[in-house]
Specification:
The complex is a heterodimer of chains A (about 550) and B (about 250).
Chain A (H helix, E strand, L loop, with lengths): L21 E6 L17 E4 L3 E9 L4 H4 L3 E7 L2 E7 L6 E5 L13 H10 L5 E16 L5 E13 L5 E12 L4 H12 L4 E3 L5 H6 L23 H18 L1 H5 L4 H20 L6 H38 L3 H27 L2 H15 L16 H20 L8 H20 L1 H4 L4 H37 L4 H32 L2 H8 L14 H5 L4
Antiparallel strand pairs in A: 1-9, 1-10, 2-7, 3-4, 3-7, 4-5, 5-6, 7-8, 8-9
Chain B lengths: L1 E5 L8 H14 L4 E5 L5 H5 L10 H5 L5 H4 L1 E2 L5 E4 L8 H6 L4 H10 L7 E5 L6 H9 L2 E6 L3 H16 L7 E8 L4 H10 L9 E3 L2 H8 L4 H4 L4 H17 L4
Parallel strand pairs in B: 1-5, 1-6, 2-4, 2-5, 6-7, 7-8
Antiparallel strand pairs in B: 3-4
The chains are: A alpha+beta (about 550), B alpha/beta (about 250).
Chain lengths: ~550, ~250
């Protein structure tokens, strides 16, 4: 990914499972597998198993949800089948045989793994984060009762690249402890540590080592915005950095979108494009319009070509929720609807993939890179605010966006048309984007604003989703009816769903009203008005744009 | 976490075979499982070749400061740990009796395992003691293996009486028939009359020499002879219990 962001990961406990520690040694001199010079206490016996070839795949979501949670999932494919090993941070490992590596939430083995991994996954797919092929032997250490007390794995590993081609190789020796046999594990590890040619491997684990062969580093992608800037950064430089960052996010999601790996790739791609368009609209004055004119046009096109598929992705996810909500009996009635949506989604996906592979789209990404690659030399006439500092510039744009929301939102009541509520949501999004763009310089200056905005946006989002879902449901039901594909059951169910959504939407509207009161209350207003106070104002006063509103 | 005791006041009815088989099958299905061998004969511990840790004594099993999780040891199977026993564990009875609220003590110790295990199976000694009372207090379900003989039904009545004396009615006794020799008329008739009715499990475990052979080989029955009639019956019992116990599998 080549992105400069700090990977965030939950603190790992010293050992996930008490007594079940693993230590890894690297082999620095040729020591043949199965012939470790291990001198152990006499009570322990060592026996070497046959050589076997296995492939160990580390699975994670594209945005490293398992790794960030301090967890790990691997699937080992060997002569005896596939073994899935799930190691959460705060509980012991669960290992079980599986037919195929799980990809989506519905493929997870039912029970412990589905319960613990499913919620983390959401709609994201489990993808190979690292693949290691190895020839290995197991050296089993047993006590006098012939109970296994530790295992030593002698592994000649090869990291595979995304085309399953051989990457770098290494030989490692892993000591795998068993719960309740810590003394034995220590004895084995100590014996190995004394063995010439073996060195304790510290730091990067197998995942880190093998992910590199796929051009990945754990934590290298997050959809969160993290644009590096200081209060002294100029507005123009801030704008360039924001666009450069968003270009990276967009580009990172193209492959997964084309491959239809999971719906979040397209979602993140669209959000990056929307944020970029929003930045161009809201940060006018920080750049010369001509510089970004072509990019603006092309990003509008990207927004348009990605829309239909995203809508259908969301509809499919909604259908799953509805089926769950309406109970098992609704399954057959919803089936024709689900089938229609699946067909349309597949067609939209094919068209989208073709567009994203097109020369025009490649040019968009190339142009986007070119225009953000180097700092801009800006003309003060066509970009009058370019030299202002990022802190005051960002603060003023945030204040303006907040004022715009007040203007639209104050006095919102039951009679306010849904379209106005929808526009308020768009305004809220723009404000949130601004807070994200400038988060590096704003720090934690607006905890109340951020908290209240998030709460308000949740309600506005739910209100809007319900409106969109109702419209979609109506449209699809009509299509089914016209095509003669829907029975009475399906149409009745669609009617019931529509009524349920309508009722929920009314609930949401009331919640929006309550949230707005908090959002426009004095503590938040004070936070907004004090934003950027004390910063150097010499860079340029409030411009006309501050009062006239506008935005993308 | 569900706590399932396998208990009978009668010996030789297949308690250990049941506890070790169900533990093996639960572990195979990916449940984090702990098997607690509460029988000083230590048959389950012997089967899995796990001896108690040298530094630990029966006293530790009831001391508040010692976690059961620290005393557990991994078996050679994935997802299955064992709290082993040996003859010194006969002192557990006296240790427990010497504590205040002995019945609650075991429950407290087991409750602390929530978040670590999803299923705890208790392989109990064939007796009516303070330990049995403590087990009935701690368990969510008590599985009662019974041979399909008339005497066994009397045993079940006695156990029910014991439980009602304890005023512990929420841990149901779930009886099931084991060691059924279906060539014998009495066994066959009792199996037909009882299985699947009056709280009895529908599954009947047949008498089989593979059970002894598996024990001899120190291998849990579901691994030693999964396709044998007894092996298949334990699989069926496990499937039946999963639903009854509300286990997340």
């Amino acid at each position: 990914m080549g992105r400069s962001m700090t990977p965030k990961r939950s603190a790992l406990p010293d050992q996930a499972e008490p007594g079940a520690r693993t230590e890894t040694f690297t082999v620095t001199e040729g020591t043949a597998p199965g012939e470790p010079a291990v001198r152990l206490p006499r009570t322990l016996t060592v026996s070497t198993g046959p050589a076997e070839t296995i492939e160990r795949t580390h699975l994670d979501t594209f945005d490293w949800r398992l790794w960030r949670a301090g967890a790990e999932m691997v699937v080992e494919l060997g002569p005896n089948g596939r073994l899935l090993r799930w190691r959460p941070a705060a509980a012991g490992e669960v290992a079980l045989e599986v037919e195929a590596p799980p990809r989506r939430r519905r493929d997870l083995p039912p029970g412990t793994v589905a319960r613990e991994v499913g919620p983390r996954l959401g709609v994201r797919a489990l993808l190979p984060a690292a693949v290691v092929r190895m020839e290995r032997r197991c050296i089993t250490v047993t006590d006098r009762a012939e109970k296994t007390v530790a295992r030593v794995w002698w592994e000649h590993q090869t990291a595979l690249d995304p085309r399953q081609q051989d990457g770098p190789g290494r030989t490692v020796v892993r000591v795998e402890g068993l719960l309740g046999y810590e003394a034995e594990r220590r004895a084995v590890a100590a014996a190995l540590a004394r063995t010439p040619g073996l060195e304790l491997l510290e730091g990067a684990g197998e995942l880190e080592w093998a992910a590199a062969a796929r051009g990945r580093t754990p934590g290298d992608y997050t959809s969160r915005i993290d644009v590096p800037m200081t209060p002294e950064t100029t507005a123009a430089e801030a704008m360039r950095a924001i666009l450069a960052h968003l270009r990276g996010t967009a580009a990172a999601n193209v492959g997964g979108t084309v491959g239809d790996l999971d719906p979040e790739f397209l979602h993140d791609l669209r959000v990056a494009v929307r944020r970029a368009r929003s930045a161009m609209g809201q940060l006018r004055g920080a750049y010369e319009p001509d510089r970004l004119e072509s990019l603006r046009e092309e990003l509008r096109w990207v927004g348009a070509i990605t829309g239909p598929c995203r809508d259908l992705d969301v509809f499919l996810l909604d259908l799953e929720d509805w089926a769950e909500e309406m109970g098992e009996a609704a399954g057959p009635a919803l089936a024709p609807l689900a089938e229609l949506v699946r067909q349309e989604q597949a067609a939209a996906q094919r068209m989208l993939a073709a567009e994203l592979r097109s020369a025009r789209f490649r040019k968009v990404l190339a142009g986007w890179r070119r225009v953000t690659a180097r700092p801009w030399r800006v003309d003060a006439v066509s970009a009058p605010e370019a030299e202002r500092d990022a802190l005051t510039f960002g603060a003023q744009r945030i204040q303006r966006a907040y004022r715009r929301m007040r203007k639209r939102g104050e006095g919102l009541d039951e009679a306010t048309p849904a379209a106005v509520v929808h526009r308020l949501r768009i305004d809220g999004k723009k404000l949130r984007y601004l807070l994200e763009f400038f988060s590096a310089v704003l720090g934690a200056a607006t905890p109340g604003l951020v908290k209240q905005l998030r709460a308000l946006q949740d309600e506005l989002g739910a209100f809007n989703d319900l409106a969109v879902q109702q419209a979609r449901l109506e449209q699809m039901a009509r299509k089914l009816h016209e095509g003669g594909a829907a029975g009475a059951e399906t149409l009745l169910l669609a009617g019931r769903l529509g009524a349920m959504m309508e009722a929920r939407q009314q609930e949401r509207r009331r919640a929006v009203e309550e949230r707005l009161d908090e959002f426009f209350a004095r503590p938040v207003r004070r936070e907004v008005s004090q934003l950027g106070a004390g910063a150097d104002k010499a860079g340029g006063g409030p411009s006309g744009a501050d009062r006239t509103g506008g935005g993308g | 976490m569900r706590i399932v005791a396998v208990w009978s006041i009668k010996g030789g009815v297949g308690k250990t075979t049941t506890a070790t088989s169900l533990a093996t099958l639960a572990a195979r299905d990916g449940l984090r499982t702990l098997l607690w061998d509460l029988d000083p004969q230590g048959a389950a511990s012997h089967l899995f070749r796990v001896a108690p840790q040298r530094k630990q004594a029966p006293r530790d099993l009831v001391r508040r400061k010692v976690s059961l999780a620290d005393m557990a040891r991994a078996t050679d199977l994935f997802n299955l740990d064992l709290l082993p026993a040996n003859l010194t564990y006969r002192e557990l009875e006296a240790e427990l009796a010497a504590r205040r609220q002995p019945r609650r003590r075991l429950k407290e110790k087991l409750d602390a395992l929530r978040g670590i295990y999803e299923l705890v199976l208790l392989d109990c000694a064939p007796s009516v003691t303070v330990v049995s009372e403590a087990v009935l207090t701690a368990a969510d379900v008590v599985l009662v293996p019974l041979a399909p003989s008339s005497l066994s039904l009397r045993t079940l009545e006695q156990m029910k009486e014991f439980r009602s004396e304890m005023d512990r009615k929420d841990a149901p006794l779930v009886p099931f028939l084991t060691m059924a020799d279906l060539r014998r008329t009495v066994h066959r008739e009792n199996a037909e009359r009882l299985a699947g009715t009056g709280g009895f499990c529908a599954t009947v475990i047949p008498m089989s020499s593979v059970v002894e052979r598996a024990a001899e080989a120190r291998t849990p029955l579901p691994l030693a002879a999964p396709r044998s009639p007894a092996g298949l019956a334990y699989e069926a019992l496990w499937q039946e219990l999963k639903g009854r116990l509300g286990l997340p599998v």
